[in-house]
Design the sequence.
């Protein structure tokens, strides 16, 4: 994997560049739609092509449980399995173990958990997580880290980042052992909202020389201003010539603010989950039509349309006249509202296509501005 | 509407022809995917274009309840509302009133029922059903008829066909009053499994001179051989120069047998409903590859794949190598099985696309053979 930093915005720390992977190049900064169980919920790989997704994220925890490693190995990896030819990033499964699994018990060795599906006991180590991602064949793999829910005490997080550093070291060693040149490995900086711990974690993870660095443990219960503050002092600690990934973030505002602080990569369930609840993102007209306006100084550049609202019952205009997705080009708000009100599954797909296209257009606009 | 009969098969009564409608021409015999609530479940109008659907069927009962006439009127009809530019046939709503509604009470005037959604009382008359379909703007409308579940007594059906004839007469009168030249109206022959009643119903409905004729009240509890017998004596009663529609039928075998008996039009929930239950239609290899083999003399020309079966877990071949749908071109059985087993909605759409394409390919093959 190769990262080329092309430009840094003059008035803030926003960066744009190119990330070359074994499955093609990606323009940064970018957003990754989430394909939890080898599909972005309701969408086919053709749909993802149509909205011009550059890369998707899939979840190691879910893939490990189902379809399982045997199937993925015989399929020759996730790209083949789901017929997606562009880049894939996989998370480590850590976040799901700590949030989804019924029971989980963390030790220095790894983390034991009961599957949320059948209660079966599994034990993940940093080594095993690298092995699993090696079978999945993602372009970018993540180290196993401990995800601490906020608020948490200074001492607990201190202990946790020691473990995360140790796991990062073991992950790199396992990767070297497997010798897979087609998969980049990213380290994750933890440390909660404590500056000293973020600094310490960053230093320790930098020392290990990964191909990219992620900031984890945000968007897990802290306030927006706390998150921005952590980014303010953490992003500058990361090397300039490596991609920077803010995990699990966030709203369109969050993304703009994080880009301003020097972040290159994002993923979040919001556009897809909100779509399935009939909450649809639309750019403000002013913003959409004045492409020269600076996104970094724009207040309220979008709104959320609750398509179930009665007022759309006979609204035969498209959701967003500036949007190029099939939902906006072919269907009206009245039709979308009807599909949601009669529980037709097409509603979920059309809404998902639109919301993801909104996020991808947002990233295109951000890249233009930089 | 104009029907041109091009050819009648030499060895049986199978016919092929062309039906010209305000929204384009249709090759007969044909199958209509069912778009109950203004969408074929899980599919967009683009998906229907992709599988080469010539015409779809939508349900007057469901559209009347939701989105309702106000919305459909302001949308300027169903074609606009759902962005479908090809022909649409609407049923009369009669079948749903008799099968879905909580309470229904039939009288000579019409049929009263409680909505299956909110229990609200509605009263449909033959005139009202014509008015509703006029607002929907379908290319082909159906008369309100009484659908009797079989088995039923001779006397009950006799009384019922008298009512159906009376309703057919009133439907034609209402249509003349509305003067909509862009909508054809079909009459429906009832009579259960009683030859004398079918003959009587056919005679009475023929006397009224519709633009096409349907055989109703089959596939409602009788045996296959009873159904074929009814077709044997009923189809020849219908005028040769008008299209013949067998309502709600059926399995691929049923369709082949009915085509042999001179039927031109079909609709059925089987391909879409079975798809959502992971039951996928696949042509036998022998049949698919030998395009010259006569479909009318073929035993077992297809099978049903239960994709949830364990044996497909690592089957990385496509469902049907001869099929041109996106499901077969882009995905494997192992991937489809995975999607069904983790309850991903993409499973339902990919399965629906394939099963409908199977039915449409079946009709293409039938037309070629004739």
Sequence:
């Amino acid at each position: 994997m190769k990262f080329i930093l092309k430009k840094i915005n003059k008035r803030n720390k926003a960066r744009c560049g190119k990330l070359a992977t074994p499955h093609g190049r990606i323009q940064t900064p970018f957003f990754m739609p989430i394909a939890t169980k080898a599909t972005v919920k309701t969408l086919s790989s053709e749909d993802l092509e149509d909205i011009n997704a550059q890369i998707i994220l899939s979840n190691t925890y879910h893939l490990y449980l189902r379809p399982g490693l045997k199937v993925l190995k015989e399929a020759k990896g996730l790209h083949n399995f789901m017929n997606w030819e562009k880049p894939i990033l996989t998370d480590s499964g850590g976040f799901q173990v700590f949030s989804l699994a019924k029971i989980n018990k963390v030790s220095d060795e790894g983390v034991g958990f009961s599957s949320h599906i059948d209660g079966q006991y599994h034990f993940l180590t940093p080594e095993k997580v690298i092995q699993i991602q090696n079978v999945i064949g993602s372009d970018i793999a993540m180290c196993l880290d401990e995800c601490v829910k906020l608020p948490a005490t200074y001492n607990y997080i201190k202990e946790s980042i020691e473990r995360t550093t140790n796991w990062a070291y073991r992950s790199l060693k396992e990767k070297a052992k497997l010798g897979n040149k087609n998969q980049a490995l990213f380290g994750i900086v933890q440390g909660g909202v404590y500056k000293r711990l973020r600094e310490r974690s960053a230093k320790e993870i930098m020392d290990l020389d990964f191909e990219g660095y992620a900031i984890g443990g945000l968007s897990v219960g802290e306030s927006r201003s706390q998150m921005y503050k952590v980014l303010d002092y953490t992003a500058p600690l990361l090397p300039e010539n490596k991609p920077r990934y803010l995990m699990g973030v966030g709203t369109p505002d969050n993304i703009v603010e994080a880009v301003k602080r020097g972040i290159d990569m994002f993923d979040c369930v919001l556009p897809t989950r909100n779509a399935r609840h009939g909450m649809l993102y639309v750019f403000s007209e002013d913003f959409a039509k004045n492409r020269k306006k600076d996104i970094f100084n724009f207040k309220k550049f979008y709104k959320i349309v609750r398509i179930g609202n009665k007022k759309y019952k006979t609204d035969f205009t498209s959701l967003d006249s500036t949007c190029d997705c099939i939902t906006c080009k072919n269907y009206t708000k009245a039709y979308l509202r009807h599909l949601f009100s009669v529980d037709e599954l097409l509603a979920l797909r059309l809404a998902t296509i639109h919301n993801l296209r909104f996020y991808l257009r947002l990233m295109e606009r951000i890249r233009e501005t930089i």
Summary: The mean pLDDT of chain B is 95. The interface with chain A takes residues 37-39, 41-46, 62, 66-67, 70-71, 74-75, 80-83, 313-314, 316, 326, 330-332, 334-335, 338-339, 341-342, 344-346, 348-350 of chain B (CB under 8 Å).
